């Protein structure tokens, strides 16, 4: 559906290499998170796909069409929700969406526009002017705008930045529905939890380079061998008593609690070692890694 091959971008005046030999192949219907720190290159990549920034090198193919040679076709296939909120403030929401439909030669799509506004909880703002919308409403409005032509691929650049929790959940529901209906979705976000909840595949970009690209479940599984455990005893613990576990970095967490960092395959062995020392424990808590922990490990490598 989307093929990015050896893509590079250098902002000449700033002498900044924002993307370095990026290769990404996205299949139809995938829901992918594109993660990276501020300045990693996410928006540059999205702006290239949107045709707003010219690539320095490489090829981009969208739905089988070359991005530069078949600009019109590629624009029909993708819908982009930009990070920056700027659009016509002197038009109503309905007018903005009709105008956008017009760019694609679409007429008489009132019903679809209503459906979009309904799903995005914007129905009562249909007649409101752009300037009258709150930040969160503007973001949802931009999502509706990106979708009026029913694109096969939806790319969202931090759509939930500054959006309150309740609305974020409305958006999650909406994106899930869209994904189920077969739309290919690429989401950039700084809320890693959001990516963990919604996406099937995770791509991490760091200083313009792709440093991870894997199914989310595989990433979580590969990184989940190392776990942190907390063990509660019925006596006040002294760290010296745990010298026999020193390779697992024992730490006293509370009067009666210690924590260890272990490979999950060693769990039984460690519990046996503790039991053999006649150290009675009363509770055990296992903490698995979240996508956020894995992400931080990846970008710190
Ligand atoms: N128009 C431009 N001219 C010069 N340098 C730019 C331009 N746009 C972006 N850059 C630089 O390119 C790098 C990548 O920026 P980009 O906006 O793509 O990052 P990002 O991953 O989207 O960051 P954020 O999460 O903050 O939105 C940064 O170092 C940035 O300063």
List the helices and strands and how they pair.
Elements: E1 2-11, E2 16-26, E3 31-35, H1 42-50, E4 57-62, E5 65-66, H2 71-77, E6 78-81, H3 93-103, H4 110-119, H5 135-147, E7 153-157, H6 165-180, E8 184-188, H7 192-198, E9 201-206, E10 209-215, H8 216-222, E11 226-233, E12 251-254, E13 257-263, H9 267-276, E14 281-287, H10 291-300
Parallel strand pairs: 3-8, 3-9, 6-7, 7-8
Antiparallel strand pairs: 1-2, 1-4, 4-5, 9-10, 11-13, 11-14, 12-13
Helix pairs in contact: 3-5
The structure holds adenosine-5'-triphosphate.
Quick structural overview:
With 301 residues, the protein is an alpha/beta fold. It folds into two domains: 2-221, 3-Layer(aba) Sandwich (Rossmann fold), CATH 3.40.50.300; 227-291, Alpha-Beta Plaits.
Report the top-level CATH class of the largest domain. Answer: Alpha Beta
What is the H/E string?
EEEHEEHEHHHEHEHEEHEEEHEH
Q: In terms of per-residue confidence, which ranges show pLDDT below 50 for 5 or more consecutive residues?
A: none
CATH superfamily of the largest domain: P-loop containing nucleotide triphosphate hydrolases
Q: Please report the number of helical segments.
A: 10
> How many distinct beta strands?
14
Mean pLDDT: 92
Q: How many separate domains make up the residues?
A: 2
Radius of gyration: 24 Å
Largest sheet: 6 strands, mixed
Task: Indicate the CATH topology of the largest domain.
Answer: Rossmann fold
Class by alpha and beta content? alpha/beta
Q: How far apart, in Å, are the first and last alpha carbons?
A: 31 Å
Shape: elongated
**Portion in helices:** 25-40%
- Which CATH architecture of the largest domain would you pick? 3-Layer(aba) Sandwich
């Amino acid at each position: 559906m989307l093929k990015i091959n050896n893509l590079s971008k250098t902002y000449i005046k700033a002498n900044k290499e924002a993307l370095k030999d990026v290769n990404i192949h996205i299949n139809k219907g995938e829901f992918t998170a594109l993660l990276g720190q501020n300045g990693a290159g996410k928006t540059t990549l999205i702006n290239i796909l949107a045709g707003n920034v010219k690539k320095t090198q490489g090829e981009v193919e969208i739905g089988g069409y070359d991005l530069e040679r078949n600009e019109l076709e590629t624009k029909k296939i993708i819908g982009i929700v930009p990070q920056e909120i700027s659009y016509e403030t002197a038009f109503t929401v309905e007018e903005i969406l009709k105008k956008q439909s017009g760019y694609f030669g679409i007429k008489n799509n009132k019903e679809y526009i209503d459906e979009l506004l309904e799903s995005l909880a914007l129905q009562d703002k249909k007649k409101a002017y752009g300037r009258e919308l709150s930040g969160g409403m503007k973001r949802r409005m931009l999502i509706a705008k990106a979708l009026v032509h029913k694109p096969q691929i939806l790319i969202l650049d931090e759509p939930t930045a500054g959006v309150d929790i309740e609305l974020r959940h409305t958006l999650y529901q909406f994106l899930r529905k869209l994904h189920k209906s077969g739309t290919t979705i690429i989401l950039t976000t700084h809320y890693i939890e959001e990516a963990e909840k919604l996406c099937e595949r995770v791509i991490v970009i760091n200083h313009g380079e792709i440093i991870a690209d894997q199914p989310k479940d595989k990433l979580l599984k590969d990184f989940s061998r190392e776990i942190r455990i907390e063990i509660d005893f019925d006596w006040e613990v002294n760290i010296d008593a745990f010298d026999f576990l020193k390779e697992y970095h024992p730490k006293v967490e509370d009067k009666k609690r210690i924590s260890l960092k272990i490979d999950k395959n060693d769990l039984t062995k460690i519990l046996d070692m503790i039991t053999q020392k006649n150290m009675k424990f009363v509770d055990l808590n296992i903490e698995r890694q979240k996508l956020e922990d894995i992400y931080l490990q990846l970008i710190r490598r």
